[in-house]
Amino acid sequence: MMAGFGHGTRRYPRSRGRTWSRSGPDRATLGIIGVICAIAGFFVLGIILGPVAVVCGWLAMGRSWAGSRPVPALVALVLGAIDTLLAVIWIAGAATPGNGMF
């Protein structure tokens, strides 16, 4: 009975909850942002910018390995992973006992 007050359920069954919000950045923009974060991560804050680049690359790829992969997204993913790995190695090397002593 509630559907009879001008809010029919048969008009647009897929119009609510299934459409993507257009307010966020698109995939190409995420790929470019990921590449910029990955390159900047080699110089400053690699432990933060590396994972950001990986996430941006993964989102730009559409959260899937299947299908065609845009080049900026793949570059952001690979460079972000390398950047994160180098930052972790650098932190582990800096945290060893006796490093920098004498």
Structure description:
- Helix content is 53%, strand content 0%.
- α1 packs antiparallel against α2, α1 (27-41) runs parallel beside α3 and α2 (46-60) packs antiparallel against α3 (71-94).
- It is built from 3 helices and no strands.
- The longest helix has 24 residues, at 71-94.
- The chain is mostly helical.
- It has helices at residues 27-41, 46-60, 71-94.
Helices and strands in order, then pairings?
Blueprint: H1 27-41, H2 46-60, H3 71-94
Helix pairs in contact: 1-2, 1-3, 2-3
TL;DR?
The chain has helices at 27-41, 46-60, 71-94. The chain is mostly helical and 102 residues long.
Looking at this protein, list some descriptive labels:
3 helices, mainly alpha, 102 residues
Estimate the global geometry from the Cα principal axes: elongated
Residue ranges: pLDDT <50 for 5 or more in a row?
none
Reading the helices and strands in chain order gives HHH
The percent of residues in helical segments reads 40-55%
Instruction: Give the end-to-end Cα distance, rounded to a whole number of Å.
Output: 83 Å
Give the integer mean of the pLDDT values. 80
Please tally the β strands and state the result.
Answer: 0
**Major beta sheet, specifics?**
none
Beta-strand level of the residues, as a percent range?
under 5%
Structural class of the secondary structure composition? mainly alpha
Alpha plus pi helix count:
3
Radius of gyration: 22 Å
